[in-house]
């Protein structure tokens, strides 16, 4: 058998890797939808499919793990996850990518729930195992987008999936030893106990907060890349503020004993951050940092408090851990499904409005009528080239006129036009961020009720 | 001692929730105060509403305002904004996309543009930029003009006005001499 320390690292990596997958492709979505010739609504299914299957498969996978042994289940789960990751990386069509993502989620569900059964033997107690498991999952989900953005920019979106295969196999090596032990002895590590009912209110609150957090991450990334035209690596750097703030949240959490207070504070902060994103007063990256700080600290507080509440005093841990995975990822999938139609409609409408306002700026500007006509045609070409994306307008103004007065007028015009486009892009996301904030606040209901009723 | 500890833990919980509320309200309040609720694209003017003509100083300025009036009139007929129509008429490809998107044919587009040009003549006459004697023949011209020429007229109203003055200006001078 492997030494406890390397095994602990391997198990934590396995959980982090699987749960990172729920968000790792967020920054690659614009790249994927252009390459696979689809739209935002279609490419959202690359995320939704994984989260939906993970939500549906987590509890059955946990039950399977208890029957055939967590070592074997985790080993097979990681192998399926790795294989499906390679299939994702080799996909040239959206349908095959989505199908491979579903298989990847099945493998991931088996691995992540089985690891929760394997952890107590490694760390010494179920309580500590739950804490390690929850922290590894939160770290994976928080770091996923930044890692995905880096890989997309430096290599390609395919590399996000391909790189997971060797990592999953490496994490599976220590698990294989347990699996071999189970096969040789016929001993199933988990004791077969009857399963109690899941903590409904904690899991319901997890669904809602996860939907709100998914909204924050997914929409912010799309705003940065599609609306404000940042590169994936630039957007990755910006959204790194969220996991950094989450680290701060992990420091605050332990000093407050009450899980209910931590969950309530976390839900309020997530909603406050989303409220801030819905009311951005300018298209400036720095203005996304305070809302991200709130969302990051909030997500760390609320997810850990609700997961702890859902697992506390409930056995077996793998099944109840499975319920928390189901709740979290059902929340992510529901959040994406609810928000995508709203914001795709809004972005189309706001884009039209912004382009109209920009055209009005050109038409009413003091530049010569001939230059106006020429600029209108060039701007129109830029819009058609961008296929629905908010365009970078600068090339339409090149070359700048030689005459200093006319040049100044054109530069002023360019800046006014860009301002209208930025306003349109930013405003398009406001209703969706606002809805996310409302969903986050709704989570306060089950959190508040959890004090009086313990289901 | 343990009662004190639990009171202090409860206080920390309350403090955490209060801090979260204050931080959230402060952020939302600060963004609202900085104009977060009004950071949206400017609304464009309704093309059916009359647009004020600035004091035209030369033929170029008159031609530009004439084009804008024509665009307004045509856009009003089609139920789109002046800006959408201006972009649609920029190239043959953009025109085709526009007619497909709004489900209109060339005859409808031509009717709308002629209506727009007539409104432009009216507006120019009302603003004193076009003498009544030139306005009449211009109306006759634009009522029968083919679509492509109508679009060219909107894009380059200067040529039309220039020609109108060249051909009709002497006639106007003659009439002014003959009439008391």
Describe the 3D structure:
Chain A starts with a helix and ends with a helix. Among the domains of chain A are: 1-192, Growth Hormone, Chain: A (Up-down Bundle), CATH 1.20.1250.20; 348-428. Chain A has 17 helices and no strands. Chain A has 455 residues and is mostly helical. In chain A, helix 3 runs antiparallel to helix 4 and helix 12 (259-278) packs antiparallel against helix 13 (289-311). Helix content of chain A is 80%, strand content 0%. Chain B has 180 residues and is an all-alpha fold. Chain B folds into two domains: 2-36; 59-168. Chain B has helices at 2-33, 59-78, 82-88, 92-102, 106-126, 132-144, 147-155, 157-178. The mean pLDDT of chain B is 80. At the A-B interface, helix 12, helix 13, helix 14, helix 15 and helix 16 of A face helix 1, helix 2, helix 3 and helix 4 of B.
Quick take:
The complex is a heterodimer of chains A (455) and B (180). Chain A is 80% helix and 0% strand. Chain A is mainly alpha-helical.
Task: Supply the key terms.
heterodimer, A: mainly alpha, Growth Hormone, Chain: A, 17 helices, B: 180 residues, mainly alpha, 75% helix
CATH topology of the domain at 1-192 in chain A: Growth Hormone, Chain: A
**pLDDT < 50 runs, ≥5 residues of chain B:** none
Query: What would you say the CATH architecture of the domain at 1-192 in chain A is?
Result: Up-down Bundle
Largest interface: A-B, 55 and 46 residues
Largest sheet of chain B: none
- Show unreliable segments of chain A: none
Number of strands of chain B: 0
Oligomeric form: heterodimer
How far do the termini of chain A sit from each other? Answer: 40 Å
Write the element-wise H/E pattern of chain A from the N-terminal end onward: HHHHHHHHHHHHHHHHH
Number of helices of chain B: 8
Total separate domains of chain B? 2
Mean pLDDT of chain B: 80
Helix tally of chain A equals 17
Helix content of chain B: over 70%
Tell me what portion of residues of chain A adopts beta-strand conformation.
under 5%
CATH superfamily membership of the domain at 1-192 in chain A: MFS general substrate transporter like domains
Gross morphology of chain B: elongated
What is the overall pLDDT average of chain A?
84
Strand-residue proportion of chain B: under 5%
């Amino acid at each position: 058998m492997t030494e406890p320390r390397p095994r602990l690292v391997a198990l934590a990596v396995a959980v982090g890797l699987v749960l990172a997958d729920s968000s790792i492709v967020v920054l690659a979505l614009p790249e994927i939808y252009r390459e696979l010739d689809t739209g935002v609504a279609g490419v959202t299914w690359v995320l939704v499919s994984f989260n939906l299957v993970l939500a549906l498969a987590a509890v059955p996978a946990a039950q399977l793990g208890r029957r055939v042994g967590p070592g074997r289940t985790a080993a097979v789960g990681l192998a399926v996850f790795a294989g499906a990751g390679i299939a994702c990386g080799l996909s040239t069509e959206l349908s095959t990518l989505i199908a491979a993502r579903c298989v990847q989620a099945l493998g991931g569900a088996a691995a992540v729930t089985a690891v929760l059964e394997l952890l107590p033997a490694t760390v010494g107690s179920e309580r500590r195992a739950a804490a390690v498991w929850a922290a590894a999952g939160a770290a994976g989900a928080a770091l996923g987008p930044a890692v995905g953005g880096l890989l997309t920019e430096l290599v390609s979106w395919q590399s996000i999936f391909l790189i997971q295969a060797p990592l999953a196999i490496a994490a599976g090596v220590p698990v294989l030893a347990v699996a071999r032990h189970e096969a040789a002895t016929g001993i199933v590590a988990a004791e077969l106990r009857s399963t109690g009912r899941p903590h409904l209110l904690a899991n319901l609150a997890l669904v809602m907060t996860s939907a709100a957090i998914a909204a924050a991450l997914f929409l912010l990334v799309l705003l940065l890349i599609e609306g404000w035209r940042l590169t994936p690596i630039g957007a990755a750097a910006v959204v790194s503020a969220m996991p950094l703030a989450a680290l701060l949240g992990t420091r605050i959490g332990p000093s407050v004993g009450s899980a209910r207070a931590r969950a309530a504070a976390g839900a309020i902060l997530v909603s406050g951050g989303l409220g801030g994103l819905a009311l951005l007063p300018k298209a400036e990256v720095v203005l996304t940092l305070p809302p991200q700080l709130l969302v990051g600290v909030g997500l760390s507080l609320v997810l850990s408090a609700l997961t702890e509440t859902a697992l506390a005093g409930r056995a077996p841990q793998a099944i109840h851990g499975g319920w928390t995975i189901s709740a979290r990822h059902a929340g992510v999938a529901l959040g994406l499904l609810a928000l995508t139609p709203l914001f795709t409609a809004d972005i189309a409408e706001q884009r039209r409005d912004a382009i109209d306002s920009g055209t009005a700026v050109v038409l009413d500007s003091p530049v010569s009528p001939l230059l106006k006509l020429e600029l209108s045609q060039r701007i129109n070409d830029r819009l058609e080239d961008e296929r629905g994306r908010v365009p970078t307008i600068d090339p339409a103004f090149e070359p700048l006129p030689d005459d200093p007065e006319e040049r100044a007028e054109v530069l002023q015009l360019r800046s006014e036009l860009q301002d209208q486009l930025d306003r349109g892009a930013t405003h398009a996301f406001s209703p969706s961020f606002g809805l996310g904030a409302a969903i986050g606040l709704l989570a306060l209901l089950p959190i508040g009720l959890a004090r009086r009723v313990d289901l | 001692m343990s009662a004190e500890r639990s009171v202090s833990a409860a206080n920390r919980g309350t403090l955490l929730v209060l801090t979260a509320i204050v931080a959230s309200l402060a952020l939302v309040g600060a963004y609202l105060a900085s104009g977060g609720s009004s950071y949206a694209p400017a609304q464009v003017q309704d093309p059916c509403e009359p647009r004020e003509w600035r004091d035209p100083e030369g033929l170029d300025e008159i031609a530009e305002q004439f084009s804008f009036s024509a665009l307004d009139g045509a856009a009003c007929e089609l139920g789109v904004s002046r800006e959408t129509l201006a972009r649609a008429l920029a190239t043959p490809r953009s025109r085709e996309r526009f007619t497909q998107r709004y489900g209109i044919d060339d005859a409808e587009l031509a009717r709308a543009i002629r209506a727009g040009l007539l409104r432009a003549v009216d507006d120019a006459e009302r603003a004193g930029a076009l003498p009544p004697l030139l306005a009449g023949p211009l109306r006759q011209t634009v009522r029968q003009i083919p679509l492509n020429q109508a679009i060219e007229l909107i894009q380059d109203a200067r040529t039309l006005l220039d020609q109108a003055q060249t051909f009709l200006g002497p006639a106007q001078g003659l009439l002014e001499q003959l009439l008391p």
